[in-house]
C-alpha cells in the first residue's frame, strides 16, 4: 500500500539498557559500551512481494549517533547513520529470503544515549522522472476499424486515454493489404499521440510450420517499416501466441515450450528495427518448464504484456506479481492486461481414479493417451483407466472480466496503479475489450 505503518508491537531486543514501548512509539535507552546492542523490528509473517521496490520512512527524536540497517532474516544489511527524519529506498532481489519483509535494525552508539522512534512505515518510493499516469494500451482487432473509419477509431482511443493501439492487418501477395490506407492511419494516430503496434499470433506459431508462417508475415512488416516515412512507422509488433492452447501441451509441455522459445528467438533475429512485445500468461514464471522459454523471452522481448485477467485490485496484484518480479530482474517493461469484454462462466471439473466412472483414459502407442467422456459410467472389465467426477467449481465471468463496466474498470486501474508502481518494470495497463 502507499503508506503502511510497521506494527511496533512485534520486536525483539538485544540491549544493555532499557526498552519502553507505548502505542506507536518505542524508546531505546542505551548505556555506553562497545558490544553490539540495539533493537530489531520484525514484521513477523508479513512479507513483501518479490522484486518490489519500496521506501522505509521514519521519524525519531533523541540523542545523535544511532544507526540503522535493513536486513533479511538470514542476511546482513548495510548500516547507516540515522538522521531525525529520513527515507531509505530499497529493492530486494527477486526471491530474496522467499519474499519475506526485511527487518529494521536500530543500533546503539558506543557513547550510549536515548532515542524514541515516533513513526516507521513502508511507502511508495519517490517517483522517477516519468509520467505519473500509467500508460494505457488497447486492442482493436477488426482491420475495418482502421480501414473504414480511422478518424473514429483514433477519437475513441483518445477518449479512453489510450496511447498505444494494437491492431491487426491482412497480408496479401507479400504486402499489407490496403497499405496506403494503413500508412495514413498510422500517421493520423501518431499525430494524435497514439503509437500503433501490429498484433500477430496463433498457437501454431510455436510449431515448425506455424513458425515459418510467422517469419514470412514478419518479413512483410519489416519491409513496410523500411519503406515508411518516420511518422508512418510502427511502434513494434506484438506476438500473442499462447501455445499452451495446443491440444498436446498437457501431455508434452517441454516440446511445445521449446518450440515457442525457438519461435521467439527466430522472430527476434528477423525483427530488424521492430520492437517485439510478447503477450504472456501470468502463471508462466512458476511453470515447471518455464526455464525452457523464459531465457529466450529475456533476450528477445523489448517489452512484455501479462494477462492478469482479474477484476479486483488485490487479485490483479496477486496474479501479476510473479511476472512483475521476473520483468524487474530482467529490466524489461511490463504492461498488465485487463479484460473488459464478454466472458462466460467457466466450469472446472476434477476427476479421480474410480472402479466405475464416465471418463476413460486409453494409452496410445505413441506414448500419449486418448481421453473419452462417456454418456454413461462403465465398470471393471473394460480396457484403460476409469475416472469419476470428484468435484466441480464454477468461476464467474465477472471475476475475469469487467464485462463492459467502465466504472469498475477505471476504479480497479486507479486502485492497482499505486501498488503496481512498486515494481520498476511496471509500464502501464493494456485493456482488452474496451474497443470492439
What are the key terms here?
6-stranded antiparallel β-sheet, 8-stranded parallel barrel, 436 residues, 9 helices, alpha/beta, globular, disordered N terminus
How would you characterize the overall build of this protein?
The protein is of the alpha/beta class and 436 residues long. 25% of the residues lie in helices and 33% in strands. It contains nine helices and 25 strands. It has an eight-stranded parallel barrel, surrounded by four helices. Helix 4 packs parallel to helix 5, helix 5 runs parallel beside helix 6 and helix 7 packs across helix 9. The longest helix has 20 residues. The two termini are 34 Å apart. The N terminus is likely disordered.
Summarize it.
By secondary structure, this protein is α/β, with parallel strands linked by helices.
What spatial order of strands do you see in the largest sheet?
12-13-16-17-18-19-20-25
Let me know the average pLDDT.
Answer: 86
Output the radius of gyration. Answer: 27 Å
Distance between the termini: 34 Å
Output the structural class. alpha/beta
Q: Identify the quaternary structure here.
A: single chain
From the spread of the alpha carbons, the general shape counts as globular
Kindly estimate the percentage of residues that lie in beta strands according to DSSP: 25-35%
* Secondary structure: number of strands: 25
Number of discrete helical segments: 9
Main β sheet profile: 8 strands, parallel, barrel
Poorly predicted ranges (pLDDT <50, ≥5 residues)? 1-17
Helix content: 25-40%
Amino acid at each position: 500500500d502507499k503508506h503502511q505503518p510497521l506494527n511496533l508491537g512485534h520486536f525483539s531486543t538485544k540491549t544493555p539498557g532499557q526498552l519502553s514501548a507505548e502505542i506507536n512509539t518505542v524508546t531505546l535507552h542505551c548505556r555506553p559500551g562497545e558490544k553490539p546492542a540495539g533493537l530489531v523490528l520484525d514484521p513477523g509473517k508479513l512479507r513483501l512481494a518479490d522484486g518490489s521496490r519500496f521506501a522505509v520512512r521514519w521519524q525519531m527524536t533523541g540523542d545523535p549517533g544511532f544507526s540503522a540497517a535493513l536486513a533479511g532474516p538470514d542476511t546482513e544489511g548495510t548500516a547507516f547513520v540515522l538522521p531525525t527524519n529520513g527515507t531509505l529506498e530499497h529493492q530486494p532481489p527477486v526471491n530474496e529470503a522467499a519474499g519475506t519483509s526485511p527487518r529494521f535494525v536500530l543500533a546503539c552508539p558506543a557513547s550510549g544515549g536515548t532515542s524514541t522512534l515516533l513513526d516507521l512505515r513502508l511507502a511508495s518510493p519517490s517517483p522517477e522522472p516519468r509520467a505519473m499516469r500509467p500508460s494505457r494500451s488497447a486492442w482493436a482487432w477488426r482491420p475495418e476499424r482502421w480501414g473504414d473509419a480511422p478518424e473514429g477509431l483514433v477519437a475513441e482511443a483518445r477518449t479512453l486515454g489510450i496511447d498505444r493501439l494494437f491492431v491487426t492487418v491482412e497480408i496479401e501477395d507479400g504486402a499489407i493489404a490496403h497499405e496506403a490506407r494503413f500508412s495514413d492511419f498510422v500517421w493520423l494516430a501518431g499525430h494524435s499521440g497514439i503509437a500503433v503496434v501490429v498484433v500477430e499470433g496463433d498457437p501454431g506459431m510455436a510449431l515448425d510450420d506455424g513458425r515459418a508462417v510467422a517469419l514470412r508475415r514478419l518479413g512483410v512488416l519489416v519491409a513496410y517499416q523500411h519503406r515508411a516515412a518516420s511518422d508512418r512507422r510502427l511502434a513494434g509488433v506484438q506476438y500473442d501466441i499462447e501455445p499452451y492452447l495446443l491440444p498436446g501441451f498437457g501431455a508434452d509441455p517441454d516440446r511445445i515450450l521449446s518450440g515457442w522459445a525457438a519461435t521467439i528467438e527466430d522472430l527476434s533475429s528477423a525483427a530488424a528495427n521492430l520492437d517485439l512485445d510478447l503477450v504472456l500468461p501470468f502463471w508462466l514464471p512458476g511453470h515447471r518448464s518455464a526455464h525452457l522459454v523464459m531465457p529466450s523471452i529475456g533476450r528477445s522481448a523489448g517489452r512484455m504484456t501479462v494477462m492478469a485477467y482479474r477484476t479486483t485490485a488485490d487479485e490483479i496484484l496477486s496474479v501479476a506479481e510473479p511476472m512483475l518480479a521476473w520483468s524487474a530482474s530482467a529490466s524489461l517493461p511490463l504492461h498488465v492486461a485487463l479484460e473488459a469484454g464478454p466472458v462466460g462462466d467457466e466450469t472446472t471439473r476434477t476427476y479421480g481414479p474410480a472402479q466405475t466412472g464416465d471418463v476413460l483414459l486409453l494409452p496410445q502407442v505413441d506414448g500419449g493417451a486418448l481421453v473419452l467422456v462417456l454418456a454413461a459410467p462403465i465398470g471393471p472389465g473394460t480396457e484403460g483407466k476409469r475416472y469419476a467426477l470428484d468435484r466441480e467449481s464454477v468461476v464467474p465471468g465477472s471475476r475475469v472480466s469487467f464485462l463492459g463496466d467502465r466504472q469498475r474498470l477505471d476504479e480497479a486501474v486507479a486502485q492497482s496503479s499505486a501498488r503496481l508502481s512498486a515494481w520498476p518494470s511496471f509500464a502501464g495497463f493494456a485493456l482488452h475489450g474496451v474497443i470492439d
